[in-house]
Amino acid sequence: KAGVTQTPRYLIKTRGQQVTLSCSPISGHRSVSWYQQTPGQGLQFLFEYFSETQRNKGNFPGRFSGRQFSNSRSEMNVSTLELGDSALYLCASSPSPDRVHEQFFGPGTRLTVL
Amino acid sequence: AQSVTQLGSHVSVSEGALVLLRCNYSSSVPPYLFWYVQYPNQGLQLLLKYTTGATLVKGINGFEAEFKKSETSFHLTKPSAHMSDAAEYFCAVSDRIKAAGNKLTFGGGTRVLVKP
């Protein structure tokens, strides 16, 4: 069974641009969560999607948004990039929102903002 | 709000020595508890988890952790460190309520260095 895949793996953008990251969950998993990992703030929850609906949201500005498609694939978008958005963005998938103990993480997308 | 504290951002151990990584959580209701490992430029790999039942949990690569409710702790141990254990380790918790969904709250991480 293929794991969680994230594309692209590496990305370089400049301040003010926007970026879209993609996450394909494990087959049969319908819940997708996103996390930001930075040296200063550590691992922080961004949001969770299930059945194309955002179920939960972390404490991030509105520049961070996401969506989920009918095939459970998810994208997250960051608009008006700032230097502080440089981070490893991790996606995790689970069969459903009440199965946190069956959640698996992808390899992440490393975003560098110049 | 939940919080997770990992004591020590860096730990150095000799190969063959005991690895002990400490984790304490803040919730009055025992949450689900997890330990993850992260190797450079990779995602998070689950080492072990506590959901219910036996409080001593065994995981992959010889790691184990014990849930102690009275101490609100979930410390990770490995009797004998191997060079391949050099990585960053994260303790995480999730509330046992439906509204929490699959949200994990992570500790700050502990980077383990293994000396030959």
Describe this structure in words.
The complex is a heterodimer of chains A (114) and B (116). Helices cover 0% and strands 53% of the residues of chain A. With 114 residues, chain A is mainly beta. In chain A, strands 2, 4, 5, 6, 9, 10 and 11 form a 7-stranded mixed beta sheet that branches. In chain A, strand 7 and strand 8 (74-78) form a beta hairpin. Chain A is globular and about 35 Å long. The relative contact order of chain A is 0.33. The mean pLDDT of chain A is 96. Chain B is mostly beta strands and 116 residues long. Chain B has no helices and 11 strands. Chain B has strands spanning 4-7, 10-14, 19-25, 32-38, 44-50, 56-58, 64-68, 73-78, 87-94, 105-106, 110-115. In chain B, the strands form 2 sheets. In chain B, strands 2, 4, 5, 9, 10 and 11 form a 6-stranded mixed beta sheet that branches. The relative contact order of chain B is 0.32. The model of chain B has no long low-confidence stretch (mean pLDDT 93). The chains are: A mainly beta (114), B mainly beta (116). The interface between A and B is medium-sized, with 28 and 26 residues.
Keywords:
heterodimer; A: mainly beta; 7-stranded mixed β-sheet; 4-stranded antiparallel β-sheet; 0% helix; globular; B: 116 residues; 11 strands
Low-confidence stretches of chain B: none
Q: What is the count of DSSP helices of chain A, taking H or I runs of 4+ residues?
A: 0
Largest interface in this structure: A-B, 28 and 26 residues
- What value does the Rg of chain B take, in angstroms? 14 Å
Gyration radius of chain A, rounded: 13 Å
H-E string of chain B: EEEEEEEEEEE
| Assembly of the depicted chains | heterodimer
Query: Which structural class fits the helix and strand makeup of chain B?
Result: mainly beta
Q: Please tally the β strands of chain A and state the result.
A: 11
The biggest beta sheet of chain B is recorded as:
6 strands, mixed
- How confident is the prediction overall: mean pLDDT of chain A? 96
Q: Count every helix of chain B, treating DSSP H or I runs of 4 or more residues as helices.
A: 0
- What proportion strand of chain A? over 45%
Low-confidence stretches of chain A: none
The level of helicity of chain A is: under 10%
Given helix and strand content, the structural type of chain A is: mainly beta
Major β-sheet annotation of chain A: 7 strands, mixed
Query: Percent of residues of chain B in helical segments?
Result: under 10%
Residue-averaged pLDDT of chain B: 93
Note the run of SSEs of chain A as H and E.
EEEEEEEEEEE
Q: Report how far apart the termini of chain A are.
A: 37 Å
